[in-house]
Amino acid sequence: MEVISIFMNRACDMNLFDGCHLPNDGPCISHLCYADDVLFIGAWSEQNVLALNRLLRWLNLVSSLKINRRKSNLFGIGVDDREVGWLARLANCEVGSFPFMHLGIPIGVNMKRVMFWKPVLEKFSLKLSKWKAKYLSFAGRMTLAKSVLGSLPSYYLSLFAAPKGILNKLEKIRREFIWEKSNSWHKLRWLRWELLTKSKKIGGMGLGGIRGFNLAMLLKW
Q1: Could you give the number of structural domains in the chain?
Q2: The pLDDT of residue 106 is above 90
Q3: Which of 13, 19, 59, 140 is in the most buried spot, having the most CB atoms within 10 Å?
Q4: 116 and 214, same domain (yes or no)
């Protein structure tokens, strides 16, 4: 990845590759690397595709690593499908289509729509299933509810503002798990839910609200 970054930076400095120029005197982004996954970003042109072909060939000569082009995809934004297919053949890779998954995040979808949050709801429900509640004490259910909120949905909630409907469904799953509610019965609720979500510093139980968690994660950026 370090070699790829060096090659791409030099290619951009020599005007061999035209990256994505951000507005307001922002930087020029040509590639994003994470572990063994790379996104090349640039203007739609045959020159850029040929430059990438040469770069990957140089990488093969330097490191003896050969890229599997059939596992790579070319995406065109605002470009005719036939033109995407033509440049994909030139790059010897597959034609990509939106939406697609990148690092576990859907790209090219409107995350304000509830349907795209289905994976988060399913994982949340699986971890806080009703059968687990039967074998845990109240303290155990509180601990598990806190840990699940800090792990499972945090990736999505740190990047997207969740719709109100999703926040309500996540809170409902937590409430039913903590109060050990089933389809036919539920235990007596000795405390108000607002008291459970309040910070311990102001007399609450420190469970935390999902909406506040979402806003806090977004504010970190």
Answers
A1: 2
A2: no
A3: 19
A4: yes
